[in-house]
Amino acid sequence: MRNVHSSHTSVRGEIFVRRAVARDAKRLTRLVRGSRAYGGQYASMVSGYRVGPDYIESHRVFVAADADVAPGRVLGFYSLILAPPELDLLFVQDGMQGRGIGRLLVEHMTAEARAAGLARVRVVSHPPAEGFYRSVGALRTGTVAANPPAVPWDRPELEFLIPQLPT
């Protein structure tokens, strides 16, 4: 395995999770803007979105990368904000969904949240992603009202409960 910049490294097959670095910014931005999940009525949400080096350096951003086939190829990523605790972003590359990468990222996020002493992590979900979040353990807690023009639709609000390990 490569040098990993995280205290919690998750590995599944030939995929590993590492801390994002500033040079990942353009790749992460392309992943967000190119996501088919944000096509049609949702396109306005990501059309001008940018994951900049400053965002990566000031938040806990982690990428799932391919270890062997295309070394270092980013397959997905997430961003965890500690205060207030929120899963800000989670994207898996189109064509790579359904292979456990999102689940791996959520497991990694849970370990990071636990290490930071968080009891819960909020998620304001893209409406089509609610089923995924529920399938990996998030609980529905409410609805965040639309905020036009940026977000013209209501969004599900969920949370992950972060169990602390026994000492």
Concise account of the structure shown:
The chain has 167 residues and is an alpha+beta fold.
Overview of the molecule:
- With 167 residues, this protein is α+β, with helices and mostly antiparallel strands.
- The chain contains five helices and eight strands.
- The protein has a five-stranded antiparallel sheet, sandwiched between helices. It has a three-stranded antiparallel sheet with strand order 6-8-7.
- A hairpin with a 4-residue loop joins strand 4 and strand 5.
- The N terminus is likely disordered.
Please write out the topology.
Layout: E1 11-12, E2 15-19, H1 25-33, H2 43-46, H3 53-58, E3 60-66, E4 74-81, E5 86-92, H4 101-115, E6 120-124, H5 130-135, E7 139-144, E8 155-161
Antiparallel strand pairs: 1-2, 2-3, 3-4, 4-5, 6-8, 7-8
The helix content is 10-25%
Which ranges are low-confidence, i.e. pLDDT below 50, for 5 or more consecutive residues? 1-9
Radius of gyration, whole Å: 15 Å
Largest sheet: 5 strands, antiparallel
β-strand number: 8
Query: Which structural class is indicated by helix and strand composition?
Result: alpha+beta
What global shape is seen? globular
Number of helices: 5
Describe the strand arrangement of the main beta sheet, using strand numbers: 1-2-3-4-5
N-C termini distance: 29 Å
Mean pLDDT: 89
Strand proportion, as a percent range, falls in 25-35%
SSE order, one letter for each helix or strand: EEHHHEEEHEHEE
